[in-house]
Amino acid sequence: MDPLRLFLDRFESRSEAESAWLKNIFTFISQHLSALTCGPAPLTADQSVTGVCGEHSVCQLSVCVVQRIQEKMCVTHSLPVSYRLLSVSELVSQQHLACVSNLSWSTNQQRAWAREAELSLPGQHALPRVNLLLIGCLRAGRGGEWRLTDGSGSVRCECLSPSPLWMNRPVFLPHWNYIPHNPVVQDVDGPAGYVELIGSPVLLCPGPEQVVAVGGGEGAGLSGAVGVREAAALLHNRVRGQRVSVCGRVGSVCPLLVVAGTTFFCFTLTDGSHSLPVLIKDSSRLWWSQCVCVGQSVCVTDLRVCVLRGWRGNNILCVTERSELHNNYTQEHTPVADTHTQLDTPLMSQHEEVCERAEPEAVQSAVRMKRSRVISYQGTVTEVVSEGAGLYVIDGKVGLCLSYQPPVRRRLRVGDGVELHHVHFLYRPCPDFPPSMLCTCLRSSLKVTAFSRVGGAPPAAHCPGDGVLPRLLLQKNVGVSEYLWACHLSSQLSHSLVLGVLQQQCVCVLSWKLMESLWRQQGRGRRDIYSEMLDEPHSCPLTQYSVDPAVHQYVSVSELCQSLQLDCWSSVSLSSLLPPDGPSMTRSQLNSALSWSCKTLSSDPQTGDSLRQRPLLLVGVLELPSQTSELKHSLQLRDGTGAVACIATETSEEDDGGQMPPSNTAWIGCLVCVLQFTMVMERFLKSDFPSYQHLDQEKFITKKHSSPSVAMVTHLRQKAESSESDVTARKDTAEEETAWRKRRREEPDSVSTTTCPRGDGARPCVSIVIRVEQKEGVTWRNVGAGSHVEGAGLILCFSVRAAVIGPVVSWGQDPKNRPMMDRETDRQGEDKVVLMFCGGSARWFPVLQPGCLYRLTAADTQDPGLLIGCQVSGRSGVDLHTDSTLQVRSGWRFHTLTRPLRLHPCRQALSPSVLSVSEVLACRSDLVCFQGLVSERISLSDRTTDSGHTHTGVRLTLCDQSGRSLQVYLDLSHTPYPPGLLPGNTLLLSAFQRRMSRAGSVYCSYLPVSSITVMSLGDTRSVRPPVPMMHLAQWALDTEQRCIVGQVKGHVVCFLFLQLQWSCSLCGSVYTKVHNTLYTQSCCSPRCPSSSSVFQSRAKLVIDDGTGEAHVWVSGALVRPLLGLADCQWEGLQRVLRVKGHLRVVPRGQSSVRDAEDALLHFLLCWCSSDAVCRPLCLTCRTHCRQRSDDLRRFSRGDRDFMTRLTRPLQLTCLHLT
After folding, report:
1. Are the beta carbons of 1104 and 1053 closer than 8 angstroms?
2. CA-to-CA distance for 188 and 357, rounded, in angstroms?
3. 528 in the same domain as 452
4. Residue of 962, 964, 852, 973 lying closest to 907 (CA atoms)
5. Domain boundaries, position 1007
C-alpha cells in the first residue's frame, strides 16, 4: 500500500486543511529526515538522501512526529495547521530577524511572556513569535559545538543542559529561539546564525542507550567504575594499556582551548577530599564540554593514564575512543539549587551580599595590591558593555570580565541567565567600572542557565567586535585593573577622536599604549595555562590585582569645556572677586573690578583645585588656530567633539628645563596625550551694580561671557642619533605630556627631484631656509574689499622680518624638518625679507618665534622664483633702506629646524635684546622689548566687542626678580584677544612704546605692531617675587626708584589726619541721613539720583624705623586694623557716622567739624594718640609715582631772614599691614 495512504489512514476524520498539513509533514520527513533515522553516524558522501530507510520507517517516523506535536500543543482536538515545518537551509537563508517559536503557547500566554520580558529589561523588545517547527538530528560539530542537522544542511544549536543521550538522535524542538548572523560581528565559522534550544527536545526514536538509562541498567564499563580516591592512586602507578572508569562529582570545568592546532578542555572530578583531572582532546568527544556541569555526578568510562607535558603534575586521565559519559541528567531537569548544595564555594546571587566594606578615603589614596576571592555566582546579564572586550554587567550592579578566557562561541545577550563557578571576585579594580567585578580565568566555568527573551541591540560602533584588546591582553598579560582602564579609554576615544584620523583597531592599540605609559608595566610574562587550570592551590593573573583610585580619568574636549562653563558661573560669588576694600568701592570701581576675572583648575587634585577627584587626561590633535577659532594667538587641541585654545610652552634638555614659547612645527597635526595641564576659564562680565550691597541681584548683570583654555608644558627631546629632528615623548617621572606621531617617520635624506609613489610625500616642492628676527603682532587690517572675514576688507594679518640663509632648493618631496643640506646654506651673505601673512596664512603666528630657523616649503611647484621676495622700486640717485617682501600663501608650510648642525654661525645670530623691567625703567628708548612676570591684571574699559568680550582695555603690572614693577596698558580693540594674560605667567612684550606719565612714572603702551608671547606658565597662587626689606633712609635717597615696593618695619609716630565718610556710590559726594519721620538717606549733590552709598576711610600717618621717617597713606579695609578696632566696633562707628555723613580728624590741629563738643570726634582724637594705635608695625608699601622736590623755606630770627632747603618726607602707600 502507498506509505502516504497508510500515514493518512492513521488520522481519519480530518478537515481538508489538516489533511494538506499532514501531507506536508510526510513529504518533509521523506525529503529531509528519513536518511538520518537509520543510525547514529552521519551520512557519507555516497549515500542518498532518500531510499536509505524503508518506506515503513518513514511512515512510522511521520506518525511519531505528529503524535509528539499533538502532545506539546495547548489543545489536542485539532492539528496546528498554522505551523509549518522548516528545513535548516531555509531557516538560515530566509530568516533574517531574531525570533521565538513555542508550540504550546496560546495567544494570551505569548503576550504575557513578551510583557514580562520587556518589563524586566526596560528599553528592550521581546523576540517576535513565528509559527515554525524544527525537526532534525543532533550531531557533534567542529570545536565541540552541537548542530541540528537535516537533509538540507545544519545549524549550530545552543543547549542549556544537554544530555549525552541526545547525541545522534532525531529530535523535535517544541520551543526554540533563532538568532541570525550579525554582520557587525564576524563569526569564525562563517556567516551563520544559531538555534537556542529552550528546555529539552523531544526524542523521536529512542535508542538502546536510552532504554538502558531509563531502565537503570549499566552499560559496558560502568560495572568496574571506581571512585576518585581509588583512581587518584592509579595516577602514581601507571600501567600501559590499563583502562579505568571513574565516578565522581564535577569540581571544575575549564573552557575549550586551542593550542598548536589542537582543541581540548579539562575538568576535575572530586569526592570532597581528592581531586582528579580529566583531559578531553579527542575531537569526537569535545561536545562533552556542554554536558559537563559543576556539581553534577558523572561517570566517565575507559579512561587511560597519560603524561601531560608542560604541567608539573605530569600524569592525568585522558579519554579514549571507547570512552563514554554518563550523568544524572533526566528529562525532568534537576533545579540548580539542589545541584549545587554540596559545592565547596556556595552559589551567590543578586540577593546576597557580594561587596566588600569600603575603605576610608585616606587609605584609598595610595596604590595597593589586593587578593581576589574565588566564588560562584548566578545572575542575569543586564548590559553588554563591550562584546569585543568581553565586558558585561550582571544584575545591574556587578561587572563581568571574560577576557582572560578564550572568546565564547555564543556571545552573551541582555537577559541571559548565567551561572559562574570558580570566578574571581574583585572590589574596585577600576574606578570606571562597577565596584564589584567578577573575572573569569582558565579554571572558571560560565554556563548559560536561561536564554534571553529579547533580541538585544547590535553592538555599537565604539565596541570593537574583533577582539583587539583581548588579543593584546593575551600577548602582554597585564593586570585586570590595567586592562579595564584600557577598555574604558578605548570606548571613550572611539566617541571623541576626530573622524578619519584613526580606525577602530588603531584606537584600541592607542589605548593600550597609553595604558602602558601611565601604568609603567610591560606585562608579567607568559601564562602557564596548565598550572592555571589544574594546580592546587590555584594561582592565576587574577589572584592579585592593584587598586588605584587616583588613576587618570579621560575627558573629551567638549566635556571639559562644558564642565568649565558650568563650574565657572555656578561656583562663583561676585563678592569673592573683589579686593578686601570691595565694600567701600564706588559704582564705577565696583563694576570695573568685576568686568574680568579668571579661575584656574589643575588637572591633578593633589596639586590644586580640580574638576574631578581623579587626575584628568586629554587626547587630541594639536592644530594651528582655524579661521573660526576665537583665539588666534594660540594653538588649539581638537578632537571629534570640539576644540579648545591651548597655551603651550616648550622645554628641552639643552635649556635645563626652562620654558620657552612653542616653535617646533613638528607638533602640528600630531595626536597628543596631555597628562598634566591647567584649565583656565576667563570670565567677562558687563554689569551696572549700584553698590556692594546689590551684588546678589542678577538684574544688574547686562552680559556675561567666558572663554575656556588649557595651559600645558610640552617636553621635547632631540635624538642626536636620528637622521632627522622628531618629536618624542619623555618617559621619566617629570613627564607632563606624551605624544605619538600618527604620521610615519621620514625616509633618509634625499635631494633628488624624482617623485615617490607615497601619497603626499611624492609632491614636488621648493623650499628656503630663513631665520626669524622680529615678529609683529597680529591685528585686523583693511587689505582690500572682497574678504569674507570680519566684514568687507578686514583680514587678520601680521608680518615677520627674517634673514634668508640660503638659496631656493627644489625637492621631489617635502623635506619637512630634516637637517639642513649643504646646498641650502650655499650663500655668501644674508638677505633680509619681510614675510607678510594674511588670512589663512596668519594661522602660523603661534609657532613663529624670533631666533628660530624654519624651512619654508611651497608644494606642487618647481619654480624657485615663487619664494624670492619683491624689491621696492625707487628713483635714481635715491638709496633704499627697505627689505624685500614676500606674501605667504595659505598652502605653504613652515618646518622648524631644531638641530641645524651645519650652520653654527647662523645659530648664534643676533636677536632683539630682551630687557628686564628694571632695565626698561632706566632706559631712554622709545620702543622696547622686555620680559616680566604678570603680578596684576585690571580691566580699564567695559566696551563690548563683536565676540562678546569686554576686554578692550587692560592694564598689566609686570615685575622682575628685583621687585620693581611696571604698568603696561593694552588696547585690544583691533586685535584678537590674546589668552594667557594671567597673573603668574611670564610674558615677552615686543615693540611696546615706553612712555612717561605726567606724574613722572614710566609705563608702556600697546602699538599696532606690538606682539605678546607667553614665555612660561606660572602658578597664580604665588605670583609676586619676595618683597625686599627696606630702610626708610636708604629708600628716600633712591632717586632712580630701583625699588618701588618694599617692606618696612617701624613705629607709628603720630596720625596726620583720619577721614571717615559715607559717599555716594555714583558721584562720590557726601551721603547723609535726613532727620525726618522716615529717616531717608540722600546724596548731597542735588542732581544725583543715586540711592546707595559706600563707607570710605583714609588715613595718613608718620612712621619711623630708626633710620628715617616716612608719610604713609592708608585707605580702605586697612584702616580698621590700623586703628586696632574689632569688627563690631567698626560697624558701630559707621552707624554713628551716618547722620553727619563725614568726619575729618586732625590730631595735631583744629578739626574741620564745627561742633567742638562732638563725642565721636573726641573719642577718635584720644584713640589716635593712644598706645593701641602708636605701636610697632610691619607694612608692605609702594612709593608714590613721583616724589616732590625739596622745599625752599624762609625762617626769620629777629631782624635776619634765613633761606634753607627742607627735604620732603618719603611718601608711601600701604599695600599690606601686619
Report:
1. yes
2. 43
3. yes
4. 852
5. 917-943+950-1016
Residue with cell 537577559: 415
pLDDT, tens digit, for every residue of 605-655? 887 788 888 999 999 999 999 877 777 888 999 998 999 999 988 876 555
Alpha-carbon distance of 981 to 349, in angstroms, equals 59
DSSP code at position 48: -
Question: Minimal CA–CA distance to 49: which of 132, 150, 159?
Answer: 150
Burial 53-62 (b: 16+ CB within 10 A, else e): beeebbbbbb
pLDDT at residue 814 above 70? yes
**The total number of structural domains that make up the chain:** 7
Look-up of cell digits 600697546: 1006
CA distance 513 to 1054: 71
CA distance 174 to 154: 18
Q: Within a domain: residue 197?
A: yes
Q: What residues are paired with 1052 via a beta bridge?
A: 1103
By CB atoms closer than 10 A (0-12, 13-18, 19+), residue 859 is middle
Query: Cell for 152?
Result: 538540507
- Partners of 443 in beta bridges: none
Tell me, yes or no, whether 928 and 813 share the same domain: no
Nearest Cα neighbor of 743 from 670, 635, 813 is 670
For 718-766, the three-class secondary structure string (H helix, E strand, C coil) is: CCCCCCCCCCCCCCCCCCCEEEECCCCCCCCCCCCCCCCCCHHHHCCEE
User: pTM for the complete prediction?
Assistant: 0.82
Q: Are residues 153 and 11 in the same domain?
A: yes
**CA angle at 208 for the pair 207 and 213, rounded to the nearest 5°:** 105
> Given 691, 714, 737, which residue is the final one in a domain?
714
List residues bridging with 858 in a β-sheet.
766
Q: In this predicted structure, which of 399-408, 434-443, 1038-1047, 1140-1149 has the lowest mean pLDDT?
A: 1038-1047
Mean pLDDT of 765-783: 89
Q: Which of 374, 354, 370 is nearest to 547 (CA)?
A: 370
Q: What is the 3-state secondary structure (H, E, C) of 499-516?
A: CCCCCHHHHHHHHHHHHH
Residue 1055, strand partner residues: 1101
1137 with 1187, same domain? yes
What does the pLDDT look like over 13-23, one tens digit per residue?
A: 678 888 889 99
Residues 107-143: tens digit of each pLDDT: 999 999 999 999 999 889 999 999 999 999 999 999 8
CA distance 1119 to 1141: 18
Distance CA(781)–CA(1013), nearest Å, equals: 20
| Whether 190 and 251 share a structural domain | no
CATH code of the domain covering residue 452: 2.40.50.140
Kindly state the DSSP code that residue 651 receives in the 8-state scheme. E
* Chain centroid, CA 470 distance in Å: 22
CB 1213 within 8 A of CB 1112: yes
**Rounded Cα distance, 365 and 519, in Å:** 16
Q: Helix 1159-1168 to helix 1127-1137 angle, to the nearest 10 degrees?
A: 140
Whether residue 384 is contained in a domain is answered as yes
CA pair distance 613, 549, nearest whole angstrom: 9
Give the cell for residue 618: 586629554
Q: Is residue 357, in this structure, part of any structural domain at all?
A: no
pLDDT in tens, 307-359: 888 787 678 999 999 999 998 743 333 333 333 434 456 677 665 655 554 44
* Closest C-alpha to 245, from 348, 146, 342, 317: 317
Specify the DSSP element, H or E, that contains 89.
Answer: helix 88-94
Pair (568, 497) in one structural domain = no
Same domain, 372 and 437: yes
Tell me, yes or no, whether 98 and 162 share the same domain. yes
Q: Residue 591: enclosing H or E segment and its boundaries?
A: helix 587-594
Q: What are φ and ψ of residue 370, in 5° steps?
A: -130, 160
Counted residue by residue, the chain has a size of 1218
User: What angle in degrees, to the nearest 10, is found between the helix axes of 16-32 and 55-72?
Assistant: 120
